[in-house]
UniProtKB/TrEMBL annotation:
It comes from Oncorhynchus kisutch (Coho salmon). SUPFAM superfamilies: Mitochondrial cytochrome c oxidase subunit IV. It is a single-pass membrane protein. InterPro entries: Cyt_c_oxidase_su4, Cyt_c_oxidase_su4_fam, Cyt_c_oxidase_su4_sf. Component of the cytochrome c oxidase (complex IV, CIV), a multisubunit enzyme composed of 14 subunits. The complex is composed of a catalytic core of 3 subunits MT-CO1, MT-CO2 and MT-CO3, encoded in the mitochondrial DNA, and 11 supernumerary subunits COX4I, COX5A, COX5B, COX6A, COX6B, COX6C, COX7A, COX7B, COX7C, COX8 and NDUFA4, which are encoded in the nuclear genome. Pathway: Energy metabolism; oxidative phosphorylation. It is found in: Mitochondrion inner membrane. Belongs to the cytochrome c oxidase IV family. Keywords: Membrane, Mitochondrion, Mitochondrion inner membrane, Transmembrane, Transmembrane helix. This is Cytochrome c oxidase subunit 4.
């Protein structure tokens, strides 16, 4: 019921747009192939999102609003790290407006932490993520090796007899006897007088 009211409100807000009027006319021409709900889902993203879940209205991240980010190339973020200040933070902000010589080292650090989450040395500190990546690669290669080993023993047929050394020697001798490619090919590399490779 609540969703239908939400869709009805969305329906009323977009009913004057030309896109909606065009889709509404298309809906009328096609008849029962299109219902009101798909037409509304095509006309308004809010109606589309509200139709996915009955109980939760999804919140989209508005990228036009100021955001906080710790980045080395952007020293001053759009907004401070801590937006909502408690009473001690507010009193410290009032004290900040006075001379900074009256502030202790801990108060200066607290003021810094209100504005920024990490310092430059903390941002430059190397992460140990490479260990996870290397470990994951070794696990992947190990599992792949086990699968290949299993396939070699239990899946693949035995090697054909034509791969044996005796068969290969007979095949080479036959190619030499038949003088295969005598100008620049296989037989051209064989010395027929001395019976050896050139």
């Amino acid at each position: 019921m609540r969703r239908h009211i939400l869709l009805k409100d969305k329906y009323c807000s977009v009913s004057s747009s030309p896109v909606f009027q065009m889709l509404h006319l298309t809906k009328g021409c096609v008849g029962c192939l299109l219902s009101r709900r798909p037409v509304l889902a095509l006309t308004n993203s809010g109606a589309r999102m509200s139709s996915h879940d009955h109980h939760v209205v999804s919140n989209n991240l508005d990228m036009s609003q100021p955001m906080y980010s710790d980045r080395l190339d952007t020293p001053l973020p759009d907004r401070p790290w801590k937006d909502v200040l408690d009473s001690t933070d507010k009193s410290l902000k009032q004290k900040e407006k006075g001379p900074w010589t009256a502030l202790s080292k801990e108060e200066k650090i607290t003021l810094y932490r209100l504005k920024f989450n990490h310092t430059y040395p903390e941002m430059k500190r190397p992460s140990h993520e490479w260990k996870t990546v290397i470990g994951g690669m070794f696990i992947f290669f190990g599992i792949t090796g086990l699968v290949v080993f299993w396939q070699c023993h239990y899946v693949y047929p035995p090697q054909p007899h034509t791969f044996g050394e005796e068969w290969q020697a007979k095949q080479i001798q036959r190619m030499l006897d038949m003088r295969i490619n005598p100008i620049e090919g296989f037989s051209a590399q064989w010395d027929y007088k001395n019976k050896q490779w050139k």
